[in-house]
Design goal:
CATH superfamily: Aldolase class I
Number of strands: 8
CATH class: Alpha Beta
Strand content: 15-25%
Number of domains: 1
Bound molecules: phosphoenolpyruvate
CATH topology: TIM Barrel
Helix content: 40-55%
CATH architecture: Alpha-Beta Barrel
Distance between the termini: 9 Å
Radius of gyration: 17 Å
Shape: globular
Strand order of the largest sheet: 1-2-3-4-5-6-7-8
């Protein structure tokens, strides 16, 4: 991990969790209180239905919250969607945009992801912009060029507020239990860093690049020690306080 960047561990609950799941966050908060101050920013992105409640009781434990997606518009006739301003109003400080499940299930393009990131920043949220190659891309040797193209199209030229976070999530590693080798993660994160620095200079050098895809207690320490890995975006393992706490403790 790069020493001068405060790492970030973000949990993405996806479409999981009802009120009962809040007990896991209480459990996590209790475990955090037992140890010293965490060496990372901790974010939980619950379903929108839990965002406000979770934001209220997680804040004293030093846990901040995020949305899982936002609409590019401020408001309007978009049934079923949620705006960045609504997420902020419910207590969120971050929002994921461009998760591969959104890109696949809802055919989201880089351009739409870019507009969502802009909407997030306009609402004072930090967008966690997700990129990552498919297995076919990697097998064909085009993983880096696919990610470079996603970065070029999904990151806005203009940043507001506290900037952005990038999450590199190989699609084939999400929810599968499979992870790239440490060397492959390092190569991709270094390429993303070069890209960010070329385009944004010092801001690019200070931007957090998270790894996501089957991060769990057993592999977190190894992944988090890789150069230019500034934290993790965690799906399945963020649902249980014990696992998520173990990953936070691995920082
Ligand atoms: C994710 O969905 O962002 C993710 C990384 O999922 P998992 O950790 O379950 O692979």
């Amino acid at each position: 991990m790069t020493a001068e960047i405060t790492p970030l561990i973000a949990g993405n609950w996806k479409m999981n969790g009802t009120s009962v799941a809040l007990a896991e966050v209480r459990n996590l908060a209790a475990r955090l209180a037992e140890g010293g101050p965490p060496r990372c920013t901790i974010v939980i992105c619950p379903p929108a239905t839990l965002l406000e409640r979770l934001s209220e009781f997680a804040a004293p434990a030093g846990i901040v919250t995020g949305g899982q997606d936002c609409h590019p518009a401020l408001s309007g006739a978009h049934t079923g969607d949620i705006s960045a301003q609504m997420l902020a109003d419910a207590g969120a400080q971050y929002t994921i945009v461009g998760h591969s499940e959104r890109r696949t299930n809802h055919r989201e393009t880089d351009e739409l992801v870019r507009l969502k990131a802009l909407a997030a920043m306009a609402a004072n949220l930090i967008p966690i912009i997700c990129v990552g190659e498919t297995e076919a891309d990697r097998d064909a040797g085009r993983a880096e060029s696919v990610v470079a193209s996603q970065l070029a199209g999904s990151i806005p030229d203009e940043w507001a507020g506290q900037g952005i976070v990038i999450a590199y999530e190989p699609v084939w590693a999400i929810g599968t239990g499979r992870t790239p080798t440490a060397a492959d993660i390092e190569q991709m994160h270094n390429a993303i860093r070069r890209d960010l620095v070329t385009r944004f200079g010092d801001r690019g050098a200070a931007t957090r690049i998270l790894y996501g895809g089957s991060m769990k207690p057993s592999n977190a320490a190894e992944i988090l020690r890789i150069e230019n890995v500034n934290g993790g975006l965690v799906g399945g393992a963020s649902l249980l306080a014990n696992d998520f706490h173990a990953i936070i403790s691995a920082v």
